[in-house]
Amino acid sequence: MKGMKKLAAAVAVGAIAGLSGTVFAADSSEPIKIPIKNWSSQIVMAHVIGGIFESMGDKVEYVPVDNQASFEAVRVGDITIVHEVWQSTMQNAYYNAMEKGGLIDAGTHAAETLEEMGVPNWVIEKGLCPGLPKWEALKDCAEAFATPDSGGKGRWLEGPQSWHGDVMPNRVKGLGLDDKWVVKFAGAADALWAELQAAEKEGRGTIIFNWSPNFTDASGFTFIEFPPYFDGCRIADGGSWETTGCGSPKGWLKKGAFWKFPKTHPNAYRAFSQLTFTTPQIGSMAALVDVDKMTHADAAKKWLADNEEIWKPWTVSVLGEGN
Amino acid sequence: MSLTSSSLSIKSKPVQFALLLVVFLILCYAIAPADGNYLWRLPALLKDIPTWVNDFVGGLMFDWFPIQVYDPDIDDYESKPLFREITRAVSSGVLFIIDFVRELLLGGQKTIVAFTSWDFISENPWAEWPALPWTVITGWAAIVGYKLQGKRLALIAALATTYVAIFGQWEPSMQTLSFILVAAPVSVLLGLLLGIWAYQNRYVEIALNPLLNVAQTMPHYSYLVPVIVLFGVGDHAAALATIIFATPPMVRLTLLGLKNVPVEVLEAGMMNGCTNRQLLLRVLIPTAKRDVLIGVNQVVMQCLAMTVIASFIGAQGLGSNLMIALNSLKIGTGIEIGVCIVLIAVVLDKMSLAWANKQTDYFADLSFLERHSTLIAMLAVFVAGSILAAIGSFIFEEGFNYLYVIPHNKGITTAPIWQAAVDWIWDTFFFVLKGFNEFLITKILVPMRDAYLAMPVVATFLLVMGIAYILDGLRSALIVGGFLLFIAFSEYWDRALITAYMASFAVIVSAALGITIGSLCARHEVASKSILLVCDFFQTFPAFIYLIPVIMLFGITDTSVIIAAVVYATVPATRYTVEGLRSVPPVLQDAGSMSGVTRLQRWVSIELPLAFPHIMLGVNQTVIFALFMVIIGAFIGTIDLGQMILKAISESRGTGIGLTLGLCVAFIGLAVDQIIRNWAQRRKAALGLA
Asked: Considering only alpha carbons, which residue of chain B is nearest residue A28?
């Protein structure tokens, strides 16, 4: 099937090149494959980007894929782009794929992200850990965060180990909190949200790994202030036990693409590499789904219709002159 | 050991077990837990395996045997490894079939593209295959159901499709269906062929058994990365992963069925001058039908059980929608989607069974109309549905044509009702269960885990190999030891112990529950049927859905993991107990009753022993199911092998690490399988059942 398709395409390309005598850079008519992962802002943004491509005459196809697996998939070309790569939790997979070859950096969003340990606001309001959000407060309130299986220590609920390996166990040890706190890895984001709800019902303390922009922003969530981050402070980046207690950096939010994308869809690629969203923009996309209960596709349509002045320039500058 | 007094023979099993336990405990106390003490933990001699596997797969897929391939997209030649071109060809073949089936149901362009090109579509916007209106598919499902079995199945099929349609899950359901309609028949066919081959050739059977076990016990995540590397991301990759997962039970049951064919039947066939082919197709398989049919049932169940996992590597449909819903804690929506998956399973299962059970009437003398009544009815439904859809396009001018394809999430929703039910359970039981949870964790689970981790490696080997030796002899002991050795030499021994602790706790609870429930239900026809339905439900209802309420009730703890495992692992124990007890010949039961046994005596002395081998097969499955769910428990939050597998997906050596970890899990399963299977075999022989 593929051979036939290629042959037909080769003939067509040959014919066009032969007739016109010039090779002009038009986008291939093959669909651009956009990954659908499992959180709201990513899915809405997928449809927003898809809508932008469609407005330029390209075809798009949405492919559901696991977040961590998507980097291998974009590397071999089964999906064309990844558009929401969070520094703290995804850079491992992202740079691994880049090192193996096939994934290219397609620029960075304007949005600054924060991925850090924190507590829901009611934990502070209840006075479960006086002194928060300063991290030093954690020295004296571990008992309020103990669970049956934490052996009397406070439980420090980190995301899955696949997100950033041993950063948190190292940090706890580096800050000298390891006799009071124990790190537990949750298996998935939904486990974190379930824990938030259960803890609120019970009125017990909970400290979880979370990020912003996220839907939890709306209900009030406070990130803990750890010693400032600097390059190389973590053990994995060559730091020492004295420095590894550092907090998370203000993170980037990157885009990536399959290496052939600039060649097959030059116009779409240029638009994609220029495209950049800010934190409020991403928040407003997610809110259409999480707050206004729209479907992801409808939310994207509405967002595109309401914000033409933001995204039109990316496409116009491409198609602008000489076209 | 003065315990072994002369009055007790060393040959008696209880004595042997007691001895084993004593030596085990002595070892546990005598060996100091210290790094570098090889009696405590073996060195990680095999820790390079992941790298080797990775280099091999990497070389195969990206470096070796390069060939020059012209890529029109970039107008240049590209060097591609031969092997990858081959797997990619397989992928595109599978993808073509899936897309074809999908577009028959939902419409689309890809099939047309396969014969032309995307440029052709761009130039000819009319070239799009139309979807079948949902009314037509519902009508067809009812007709097929009626034709295969009668009014009951027709009603079930119609209700199920209508449910899916009006609750706004039509498109994802059809996407999932198209994927199942490819994966399930391939699995059945493959399983049948392999089963027959294994029946005909003893060596094939010997070679196949461990492979099947590995395929069945290996957690799917561990081969998700390799499948992505080999076949890419998309429906085709998901279908291939599903086939790997769904085929083994079919092979098993085909083989079991064929082996159970009485020699007399076989001889009768031979005496009638059957060729080998006729013997197989006309004598053996029809006689083995019952087991083969259970195989078909299992394939359908396994395929649907994979829908959620399959969405991790690109399967479109219900699975990915489910993960999205759960990630924002929309449990109501999740349940609604789960019900769709179960409904599809029920309808497909019933239809496949009815089709397989259908007798051909060779003597019917039918007119043209009678012979083609189904086709004509389907054509009529098609015309009527199309007209309805056309009318619909005038009625629903704004937005959506509800008589054509009901768009996703535009139907009625029952989600709030489900959500309310879950909330009610949560509100009512939260504080009651909290106490139970704390007790379980602090008094049972944590001590149990610590005990497992405190075992010196030598003691573990002694215990497991000793049990294998006592129950089953030296050969089993050595095989089991081999499996353990692989894990002990890997870096993952401690993780494996944690997996083993959770799985063994879950197995004990599940087996006890399953055998009790099964025994109680097997006495009544209706109860048996109902409980098997419940089993089907829990085998196909995606576990991810109840993971969330379980987490809310029990927190991110081992309790949650074990409860999820028990829900799932009780299914095979119950199913095999019911089936085993139901298949005890009534003659024997009557004979017992006439001899004046009470009901309890009959159960203990006649039914249970006779059903024992089959029940043990169920316990064997329970072990595999429990292991499987404990690994899925990584999504709740564990520190066992499952978490490592989950982590492997983001690592650069992911393929190798994933596969190695998968093998570790599989070997735990295989070790137990080795002991139970042969033990059951011996019991069977002892009972004169073999």
From this structure: B73
Contact A103, A77 (CB under 8 A): no
- Tell which B residues from 329 to 348 touch A, by Cβ distance under 8 Å: 329
Domain-ending residue, one of B286, B315, B331: B331
Query: Along chain B (690 residues), what's the average pLDDT of each consecutive run of 10 residues?
Result: 51 87 90 83 85 84 79 73 84 88 84 79 77 86 88 92 85 90 92 92 88 83 82 87 90 89 87 85 83 85 86 87 84 87 88 76 68 81 82 69 68 78 84 87 92 92 93 91 93 92 95 94 89 86 84 88 92 91 84 84 84 86 90 88 83 83 91 87 75
Rounded distance between C-alpha atoms, residue A174 and residue B523, angstroms: 63
A149, A156, A167, A288, best to mutate vs chain B, most B CBs in 10 Å: A149
ipTM for the assembly: 0.81
DSSP-derived 3-state class of residue B434: helix
Write down which residue in B297, B331, B365 finishes a domain.
B331
Q: Say yes or no: B323 and B444 in one domain.
A: no
Q: Helix, strand, coil shares of chain A as percentages rounded to 5? A: 50, 20, 35
Min Cα distance B568 → chain A (Å) is: 19
| CATH topology (fold) of A25-111+251-319 | D-Maltodextrin-Binding Protein; domain 2 (3.40.190)
Residue B326 belongs to domain with CATH number: 1.10.3720.10
Q: Structural domain boundaries of chain A?
A: 25-111+251-319, 114-237
**CA pair distance A202, B664, nearest whole angstrom:** 39
The number of domains in chain B is 2
CA distance B616 to A206: 44
Chain A nearest CA to B26, separation (Å): 28
Query: Which residues have C-beta within 8 Å of that of residue A40, sequence separation ≥ 6?
Result: A215, A285, A286, A289, A290, A296, B328
Question: Could you tell me the two tokens for B35?
Answer: 């790094």
Compute the distance between CA of residue B205 and CA of residue B220 in angstroms, rounded to an integer: 24
Structural domain contains residue B224: yes
Query: Class assignment of domain A114-237?
Result: alpha beta
